[in-house]
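notes to self, project folder thing:

trying the whole complex as one job this time. last attempt i did each chain seperately and stitching them together was a nightmare. two parts in total, labels are on each line so i dont mix them up again. if this works i'll redo the older ones the same way
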Amino acid sequence: MGDKNLGAAAKPGQHRPRPRSPNMQIYRPQLTSVLSVVNRITGVILSAGAVVLVVWLVAAASGPQAYAVIQDAMASWIGQVMLLACTFAFFLHLCGGIRHLVWDTVHGFELHAIYASGWWVVAASLVLTALAWGGRAWLGS
Amino acid sequence: MTRHLARNTRSPLAHAIGLGSTRSGVAHWWALRVSAIALVPLTLWFAAALILHTGSSHAEFTAWLRLPRNTIAMVLLVVAAFHHTGLGVQVVIEDYMHSTARFAALVLLRLGCIALALAGSLATLAIAFNG
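result (full assembly):
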């Protein structure tokens, strides 16, 4: 790492090292960079959630016994914690994704707009997660 | 540059065309956006359904999924979700994995997404057409 990868002139017959991505750990975390990383991590979490969705559908198609196994696993406290984490990850990825789609229209790139939309993503995800679980508790009682 | 020309009479531009983002980058970028837009209403529908039908019995859940609008929405959700997952996780693999592990991971990802999209769709259709 370090100097030997940066701009050292290649000697004849020697492969010049490719430039590397910035080493993230040397930067102070900022809302912009943290949300970028979060969008990626939540995407990976939701990929696992999509696999659970398929398992759930296949269990339901297999019959009441298999369905009951999945329902019991979901109702356990580990299942509930994972479902809550998936809910929050889903809303973060949804709101972050909408922010990306707005950027794709070449809007909202001013520094203040980037920070404003970033905090909106965080706030909206918290509120939507609370609404989803509040609504669930209200309907379930 | 001189080394390049000594080996190959093709211009650097001709050498670069067909590699990297000039090959399939735009199609990948566009497909990720299109599947994202499809997933906005589909995932919100699914989240609402989860809230409304939490703790449903097997009979209640299958009766709900059997309604044509729910069958269609679930199949669309599963297909769009695994299309989007395949495109998104591909970028993560390409960024962080190298050498042969990357190749194996990309093949597994592609096959896994196709298999899971089909499994989810077929399970939904099996419920819809069973009775």
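what i see at first glance: The domain at 24-129 of chain B is CATH 1.20.1300.10 (3 helical TM bundles of succinate and fumarate reductases).
need to look closer tmrw
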